[in-house]
Amino acid sequence: MKTFYVLLVSAQLGGLSFAANDPRSCCGSELLCKRRYNEVIYPATHNGHSYKKSDVANQDLSLTEQFEAGIRATKLHVWYDTDSTGKVVPFVCHGIDKKLLYDPPLNKALDHVPFLFRPFARACLEKAAPFKQIITDAFTYAYGTDNAGGAIPFKHCILDPASQPFKQALAEVEAFLATHPNEIMTLIIEDHTRNLKRLAADFKKAGLVSFAHTQKSDAPWPTLEQMIKRNKRLVVFLHGDQDLEYAKYPWMHYLWEYAWDTKSDFKDVNQFKDNCYDTVPNRGKQAFADRNKEPKNKIFVVHHFLTELIGGSKAHALKANRKHVLRNRLKRLQKETGHLPTIVQVDFFEHPANEFFSVINELNGI
């Protein structure tokens, strides 16, 4: 059944420019070849790694299936977790932080309790409050804090059935680049390991370092045609701590030196058209301030999805990904900032069929 679904999606998306593999094209169109990397808008998946049905899923298709359908950028969360041999290694997953144990989002959970039952639910939480310190002490002993381990290794990826070692996910990226020589991919790594050396080792094992483009912060981006000719077709951004040793790995770019973004906490599609709520920049304020200064090499990351308590929602995606909703928001943001949105992240991108890619192609003028 899954195979039939993937074939159906591919058939529906097959006529889109970003799903093409024309040897004369750049990312699906000859019209994009002369444009610089930051002058193109890329269809992206939010948490592309979380694709198996669960409470934390944001996608329906695996990374490879997303790429084959036309996705050209994705955000991956990277956490430490335990592999099948018992080794603690970087994993991609929709992970949970230890602080969730000590300060669970109970107030948010109350919002999902039917209104008539909320007073009862709130009273139960208040009665349980005296036990909170006991529970906190127990968790601290067992798992430690974010800066120190405890008696038991903490499983960050326990809620995500699609979790896998980071190097396995990277192997899917390498396989796609190796078989699609005119395509360019972008990875936004939301890093929870604080270990660039370990991440770089997995990139090397996956054979991706040779594909990685290095972008100087004071230089214009190359054109897509130039990136393809040089076979430097992978752009890596690190959404992590600023004080890490990025200079040792110049192809790992600290995201907020190059980019700014929108908010990501939208609850209703009406908030997408509210320019008092949907304001920019959210992060990357200096990049936003410098966007019109030479060499004009900044990146605009747009989060376009409605958030559930933990994961995504197909019902929400069917509303958020509608052509008129997405188009109107992106055009408004472009007008307000004077910059084409560069990376547009969505949940369940294939719902409704074709509309996400249709808007991306329209704004790219192809």
Per DSSP E runs of 2 or more residues, the count of β-strands stands at: 12
Secondary structure category: alpha/beta
Query: What is the domain total for the residues?
Result: 2
CATH superfamily of the largest domain: Phosphatidylinositol (PI) phosphodiesterase
Q: Would you identify the regions where 5 or more consecutive residues have pLDDT less than 50?
A: 3-9
Account of the 3D structure:
- This protein is an alpha/beta fold and 366 residues long.
- 34% of the residues lie in helices and 14% in strands.
- A hairpin with a 2-residue loop joins β4 (144-145) and β5.
- The longest helix has 15 residues, at 323-337.
- It is globular and about 65 Å long.
Task: Summarize, please.
By secondary structure, the protein is an alpha/beta fold.
Topology:
Elements: H1 2-13, E1 42-45, H2 63-69, E2 73-82, E3 88-92, H3 99-102, H4 106-110, H5 118-128, H6 132-143, E4 144-145, E5 148-149, E6 164-165, H7 166-179, E7 185-191, H8 196-205, H9 224-230, E8 234-239, E9 252-254, H10 255-258, E10 259-261, H11 285-289, E11 299-303, H12 314-320, H13 323-337, E12 343-346, H14 355-364
Parallel strand pairs: 1-2, 1-12, 2-7, 7-8, 8-9, 10-11, 11-12
Antiparallel strand pairs: 2-3, 3-6, 4-5
Name a few traits of the molecule.
366 residues, alpha/beta, TIM Barrel, 2 domains, 10-stranded mixed β-sheet, 14 helices, 12 strands, 34% helix, disordered N terminus
